[in-house]
DNA sequence: CCAGCGATGTTACTAGCGGTAACGCGAGTG
DNA sequence: CACTCGCGTTACCGCTAGTAACATCGCTGG
């Protein structure tokens, strides 16, 4: 019947959608997370209502846009995480992959982490965490899965793995954010320091009791 | 001359300022981080221009407001961090203090973490990290200081301490954010799991090679 | 051949935001 | 009495997200 028709329409619609997303990408890359719908529409050579017809509202566009980058980054991370190597090497490689990504395109990274938390002010309850980057959540969950699959953690392993997944991702994120702003050392050094932290050097370090002047 | 007069004026101005901040506090507690200047002015029983005369712009008000809470939270954390106890106990106590704080007042916590990154769109360069919570930065720096003062980390200790400070704070933050949203376990369990992570259980865990079905 | 319909696109608008200019007003001072 | 000065207001600007209403093209059916 009209299935061929509909698929045709859908195909062109999808192409438009992809074009719009690419335009939005360019604008975000240029203007950062506060890119306006007007600017995106202008970049795409059209006007606002079309954007709204395609994506519903700003949150929809941002979600679609974020999904692409998030998926791409997660693919890279999975590759590093699943490599056939020693655990420490895998961890360092994963950290380095993430840091290299945020170093290469900080604007995109900023957008992913702070996707214009607007949404709708209706639900102002205890929804802490809805915003603040679905990317972090997804990375945390994926890492948790890998940890649980690969490591033998004894009883309560699932819960422990999830805590660790989110915790490690947060560590990586915060350290990366700070490092990107101050650049106090090379990427390799940062990776090494973080891996050292995860490897328990904090607990193993000796107390400093006889410090000079103290 | 007019010194006494000016101090008098300054005193009343400071009182007004405090009143306004308390009103803003109430609104933020009710509406979350997207509290509008109009709403805050209305809560204080005045109108917008007065707010602007006192705080310059929205960023100024938010900064003043954030400073109060940040200082308060940092004081609690310092107390837990500097307690005369075993290192593990201190770490757990600090984690618990932080988590208890965000659990008690999630709206305030959200405000501190995402202080309406607007500012002015002028400087759209590579300023990643300017936003995204000065609170996290301050906590990271303070923790770094404590780590460096208390622990003997050998050469490169300062840099290592800073990486760890920011990394641990990020771990705590992300895990807390996730936990607050899903409540998958008790606070005490979360604290224990995070401390275990910092104590190197990740590195010490055995590989899971003979899993059932795999 | 032409009526109609649906998708694509436009202009023009609303509501609300941050921020500001211009004015009103009461208190103290020469 | 006039004059200034700080507190407070109303009324506005420019911007944003989001929408309603209108125009237009291409395609299908009688």
Overview features:
homodimer; Tetracycline Repressor, domain 2; Arc Repressor Mutant, subunit A; elongated; disordered N terminus; 214 residues; mainly alpha; DNA-binding
CATH topology of the largest domain in chain A: Tetracycline Repressor, domain 2
Tally the beta strands of chain A.
2
Cα distance, first to last residue of chain A? 86 Å
For the record, the CATH architecture of the largest domain in chain A stands as Orthogonal Bundle
* Total number of helices of chain A: 10
Low-confidence stretches of chain A: 1-6, 117-129
Oligomer: homodimer
Strand content of chain A: under 5%
* Average of pLDDT of chain A: 85
Can you offer a commentary on this structure?
Two copies of one chain form a homodimer. Chain A has 214 residues and is an all-alpha fold. Chain A has ten helices and two strands. The first copy, chain A, has two domains: 9-56, Arc Repressor Mutant, subunit A, CATH 1.10.10; 66-117 and 130-200, Orthogonal Bundle (Tetracycline Repressor, domain 2). In chain A, helix 3 (48-55) packs across helix 4, helix 5 crosses helix 6 (106-113) and helix 5 crosses helix 9 (187-198). The radius of gyration of chain A is 21 Å and the shape is elongated. At the A-B interface, helix 5, helix 6, helix 7, strand 1 and helix 8 of A face helix 5, helix 6, helix 7, strand 1 and helix 8 of B. Strand 1 (151-152) of chain A pairs antiparallel with strand 2 of chain B. Chain A binds a DNA duplex (30 and 30 nucleotides) through helix 1 and helix 3.
């Amino acid at each position: 019947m009209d299935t061929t028709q509909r698929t045709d329409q859908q195909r062109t619609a999808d192409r438009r959608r992809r074009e719009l997303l690419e335009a939005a990408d360019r604008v975000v890359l240029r203007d950062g997370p506060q890119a306006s719908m007007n600017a995106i529409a202008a970049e795409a050579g059209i006007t606002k209502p079309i954007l709204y017809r395609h994506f519903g509202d700003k949150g929809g566009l941002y979600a679609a846009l974020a999904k692409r980058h998030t998926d791409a980054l997660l693919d890279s991370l999975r590759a590093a995480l699943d490599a056939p190597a020693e655990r420490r090497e895998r961890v360092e490689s994963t950290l380095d992959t993430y840091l290299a990504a945020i170093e290469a395109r900080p604007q995109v990274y900023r957008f992913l982490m702070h996707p214009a938390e607007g949404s709708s002010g209706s639900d102002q309850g205890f929804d802490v965490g809805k915003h603040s980057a679905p990317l972090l959540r997804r990375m945390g969950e994926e890492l948790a899965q890998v940890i649980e699959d690969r490591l033998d953690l004894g009883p309560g392993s699932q819960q422990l793995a999830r805590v660790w997944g989110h915790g490690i991702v947060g560590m990586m994120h915060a350290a990366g954010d700070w490092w990107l702003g101050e650049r106090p050392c090379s990427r390799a050094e940062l990776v090494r320091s973080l891996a050292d932290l995860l490897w328990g050097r904090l607990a193993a370090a000796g107390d400093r009791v006889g410090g000079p002047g103290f």
